[in-house]
Amino acid sequence: MYKPAIEEALKKIEANITHFNSEFPHTSEDKKYVLNPNTNWTNGFWVGLLWQAYEVSQESVFKNAAQLYTRLMEERLTENRGLDTHDIGFLYTPSVVAEWQIKEKPESKDFGIKAADRLMERYRENIGIIQAWGPLGDPTQGGRIIIDCLMNMPLLFWASEKTGKDNYKNAAIAFIDKARRYLIRGDDSSYHTFYFNQETGQPEKGATQQGYADGSTWTRGQAWAIYGFALAYRYTGDKNYLETSLRTAKFFVDHLPEHFVAYWDFDAPVDDTIKPDSSASAIAACGFHELLDLLDGSSEYDWIKEALNKTMDALISDYTTEEDSQGLIDHGSYSVREGKSPDSYTIWGDYFYFEALLRLEHNLRGYWYESKKDSN
């Protein structure tokens, strides 16, 4: 059913290998990706796209490119360039960890563990958080967490499994518990970020960086919650995480417009100027599929299957790009609030859209956990 969309995506990914010429895409301007020399938080998604393209096609053009870009990610880690962030999981799970899962290359496993060690430097054990942004102990950012970071926790769980060390897993659980308690509101919506007193750990306030308002629900953040809590349940078996994923999924679905692709914020005024965020819906689609894989298949969860199918139908019919385009899907938003790429291609949107296609057609489920566990 999804083969034509996959084939179309593969053609674009292959063409982009030449277009990008060893640089990394982020978001687009004038329908062309803006490239960077491996300095952005999103660079792992391009590498992950290449590994996924290789997995589904087994073509050397994708494998060669994926290996080249993975080496660049390893160099960045060795040189510690642009890694003062919580986004280590976004950078290294779809790159070095992906290569380990596909090729079982020992060096890739080692780099994955080194990346997890780098992420652990963000862990503030005294208050049980992983600091989102800024230097450790920064006066304004030192006690701040972000909902996106739920998707970085699989790197810590993976490292714990590979090393047999509980410190990675314990840090991930501490953060996820904090996120569940303070980022998810009583009505199952979510804050984008939350502040704690970095000395005492006392909760201070919820806020936003990219949403419409501090008390609104930024749709990409809600999508991170759906997928991130589902993965947390996958790793831990804690039913509280599964329940939270289901609750945030139900909120997401209940607040979708009729065309089933989310606007950038569920509380932003709906008028002729409102921007969609196709990337939020692509992420949510992966989360929906993950939930269906975890649940018992009863009719009680048919609403998830319906949401998944309608979301993918809408993305394919209304958001896929022209044949010679660099992006796979259009009308994603980076940060409407800040005026950063409010309506563009987004490399993370492309990644999760392609992951959703491969999940549905081939049951290839990305690199956020290993379906085949090794014995170290």
Could you please describe the fold and organization of this structure?
There is one protein chain. The chain is mainly alpha-helical. It has a single domain, classed as Glycosyltransferase. The chain has helices spanning 3-20, 43-57, 60-79, 88-103, 106-120, 153-163, 166-182, 219-236, 239-254, 278-294, 302-319, 347-362, and strands at 24-29, 32-36, 123-124, 129-130, 144-146, 193-196, 203-207. The strands form three sheets. The chain has a three-stranded antiparallel β-sheet, with no helix packed on it. A hairpin with a 2-residue loop joins β1 (24-29) and β2 (32-36). α10 (278-294) runs antiparallel to α11 (302-319) and α10 (278-294) packs parallel to α12 (347-362). The mean pLDDT is 96.
- The helix fraction, in percent, is 40-55%
Task: From the alpha carbons, calculate the radius of gyration and give it in angstroms.
Answer: 19 Å
Task: Give the class-level CATH name.
Answer: Mainly Alpha
State the distance separating the first and last CA atoms.
38 Å
Number of helices: 12
Given the helix and strand composition, which structural class is it?
A: mainly alpha
Annotated CATH topology: Glycosyltransferase
- What's the total count of β strands? 7
Sheet bearing the most strands, described? 3 strands, antiparallel
What sequence of helices (H) and strands (E) makes up the elements? Answer: HEEHHHHEEEHHEEHHHHH
Overall domain count:
1
The low-pLDDT segments are: none
- Biggest sheet strand order reads 5-6-7
The CATH architecture can be given as Alpha/alpha barrel
Shape verdict: globular
Residue-averaged pLDDT, rounded?
Answer: 96
Beta-strand residue fraction: 5-15%
Keywords: Hydrolase
Organism: Alkalibacterium iburiense
GO molecular function: hydrolase activity
InterPro entries: 6-hairpin_glycosidase_sf, 6hp_glycosidase-like_sf, Glyco_hydro_88, UG_Glycosaminoglycan_Hydrolase
